[in-house]
Design brief:
Layout (H helix, E strand, L loop, with lengths): L2 E3 L23 E9 L5 E10 L5 E9 L2 H4 L14 E4 L1 H14 L4 E4 L2 H7 L7 E4 L1 H4 L26 H9 L10 H15 L12
Parallel strand pairs: 2-6, 4-5, 6-7
Antiparallel strand pairs: 1-5, 2-3, 3-4
Helix pairs in contact: 5-6
Length: 210
């Protein structure tokens, strides 16, 4: 049975903008997805941020906690409920059927993720969607104008180090106080914020398609 729960946020997270209860169906949308895994490398939580496909403004979010996978515990179990999003707690089968239908109902065909190969590898049920890797854009000098001239890059233009979510957010925001929460729905919103701050047209991400 699918059930929802809510918890008070205790950890700061960056959000692209306030989210209405229901996304505006008149807008073309994309989804940004993040997962957290347990000690057995099984998905224990899944966060989805819905955004306007042109402005990347946050339009809504959805959060799933997989039971019994969440009971195994993991490195970031302690922040699983540190979010203002209501959690849908259910089995993996129920969650994946629900999220797939939810995205299709919203007319969403494109899923974005940071280091998307990891998330797609753990979510084979969503292989029918188009997947794009935010990291393949954010970590490259030719796309990320915020990368300083002094940064060490490969010949391809990719940063040699420090291209995870946290250092990229520091770079984009000019604020070293940001900390990644490792809560799936909070992180999905933060990864959307990276897309918003890069401010690149959607077609730019074609080279980041999986």
């Amino acid at each position: 049975m699918i059930k929802t729960s809510s918890a008070s946020p205790r950890t700061k997270t960056v959000q692209a903008s306030p989210a209405p209860v229901e996304p505006d169906m008149s807008k073309d949308m994309i989804a940004v997805i993040d997962t957290e895994t347990n000690w057995h490398d099984e998905v224990m939580s899944l966060g989805v941020a819905l955004a306007d496909a042109e402005t990347y403004t946050l339009l809504g979010k959805r959060y799933y906690i997989f039971d019994p996978e969440c009971r195994v515990g993991g490195m970031f179990s302690y922040v699983m409920h540190k979010t203002d999003a209501k959690a849908i707690t259910c089995s993996r089968d129920e969650a994946m059927a629900d999220v797939g239908q939810f995205l299709m109902d919203k007319g969403i065909s494109k899923i974005f993720a940071y280091n998307a190969k990891f998330d797609l590898g753990h979510l084979p049920e969503l292989r029918g969607f188009e997947w794009f890797d935010i990291m393949r854009i954010a970590a490259y000098r030719q796309y990320n104008r915020f990368i300083p001239e002094t940064a060490l890059c490969c010949k391809t233009g990719r940063l040699k180090s420090n291209y995870g979510v946290e250092p990229i957010m520091h770079m984009l925001m000019g604020d070293t106080g940001y900390r990644e929460t490792h809560n799936a729905v909070n992180d999905a919103c933060d990864e959307l914020k990276i897309v918003e701050l890069l401010a690149l047209p959607l077609e730019t991400y074609e080279c980041a398609r999986l």
